[in-house]
Structure formats: structure tokens, C-alpha cells
Amino acid sequence: MDEMDQYPHMKGHYLVMDNAPIHTSEDIAKYVKSRGYRFAYLPSYSPELNPIEQFWSVVKSKVKHNKFLEKETLMTRISEASNSLKLSDFKGIVRHSHKCLDKYRNRQAL
């Protein structure tokens, strides 16, 4: 929310969260409201609606693509995979989530 606070027009917008217990506590709800935002929860078991889940899916596939080199670490591989993504990749991830959200709203199978 600190990032969102830098843009006054963001006040009143929704913060979208999954249903993890930490996100659904009354304290979190009060805190989000006190900062001037609203919140919405994603349905349970819906990674296709959550762009960060899609991001990690792409990174995971890039990490697993090749065998590890002798001196390569998991952190190095994750960092390289993350940094290799382009703006168009992120736009595609968000587009995919929007399409799935539209299907969800229209009660279509995801």
C-alpha cells in the first residue's frame, strides 16, 4: 500500500487478496480500510485469477528448463528467470488473469 499511496488517485481502489488466513483477519480488513482502500478476496483455489501465481509459474518453468551448471545456485537461476521476463510477458500474464476473471464472473468453466 505504500507504493499505492504515492498515487493519490489510487485511494478507494481495491486491493485484491487470496484467502490466506493472514489476509482474512479482521485486523487486516481494518488496516486496509484505514489506508483508504477497499479489498476483495479471490475465490479459493483460483491461481489463474492471481497474476503473481502466473508469474511464478512462468519463472518455475524457466528455472526447470535446463540442468543446473556446477556453480549455479537456485537463487541465481530464479533471479535470471525473473529478470528475463519482458514487459510484454507481464502484460500477457495480466491479460490472462482478466480473461479468466471475465469467465469467472460469467460462471463459465475456467
UniProtKB/TrEMBL annotation:
Gene3D superfamilies: Ribonuclease H-like superfamily/Ribonuclease H
Protein name: Tc1-like transposase DDE domain-containing protein
Domain Tc1-like transposase DDE: 3-74
Xref: Pfam families: DDE_3
GO molecular function, one term: nucleic acid binding
